[in-house]
Amino acid sequence: MRPHLTPVADNVPSVPNYLAQGAECELFTQTHAAGLPLLLKGPTGCGKTRLVEHMAARLGRPLITVSGHDDLGAADLAGRFLIEGGDTRWVDGPLTRAVRLGAIFYLDEVVEARKDITVLLHPLADDRRVLPLERLGEQVPAAPGFQLVLSYNPGYQHLLKGLKPSTRQRFVALTLGYPAPELEARIVASEGGVEADTAQQLVKLALHLRRLTEHDLEETASTRLLVMAARLTRQGLGLSAAAQAAVIEALSDDDATLAALAELRRAVLGD
Ligand code: ADP
After folding, report:
1. Most buried among 38, 45, 72, 75, by the most CB within 10 A?
2. Can you give 6-65 as a three-state secondary structure string?
3. Domain identity same for 167 and 194
4. Which residues of the chain are under the pLDDT cut of 70?
């Protein structure tokens, strides 16, 4: 029997545009229906967040998103006591709100966060589906519709920061890469509001940049950067100048590397 889902408020936003790379939307739907948590792996700017936004809207669930950073700890997610004029009052954190509401909770770049968050994530990710609120001495059961979704970028060299096997083993995992060229050009055209030809040229540049191995770039040209370049051209900036500002400059701060990347940009897009 399907669990009863709490109706969501009337102001559910329209479904954000997402062009699928494969069967990721079906897998998302199935994990949601099965009450399973999902781990999205893939480079920055390849569409992970957009997939979650799209699926939350399609599934009719509220979405609560938190970005991982090195100061983010369990109390930031669970909640804390606040002192107000001599009184102490408990305030739910975003994860607690999502658990009570039956929302989709999306924690982006999970490996950036402090390790103490695993104490909250593990009991939510396995069969227990409860959130332990130690400070309140309470275990909050996840409302129907709740789903935990984490993302991380396995390409980063997080020396001490990989995802622990005990966490990884609790999640269904889905890997997204950059979309195939034809699809990526369609995405850049629709998201950037440009003609197919402009989008194709930007994707061509990205394919060249992604093939580079000699510059030791930490990140490469993402779909997000191509969309930004496309939006600049829509504002009237020339294609090559837009690619320089939105794509090339984002990839390095090293003068020699930037000069080599600009050379490549000129070879592909002209001056
Ligand atoms: P990530 O979360 O992987 O860092 P995002 O989901 O924020 O990346 O994607 C960056 C941008 O690229 C989005 O805002 C959107 O404009 C565009 N984009 C990437 N993939 C897609 C896709 N499959 N369909 C539609 N837009 C996409």
Report:
1. 38
2. CCCCCCCCCCCCCCCCCCHHHHHHHHHHHCCCEEEECCCCCCHHHHHHHHHHHHCCCEEE
3. no
4. 1-13, 156-161
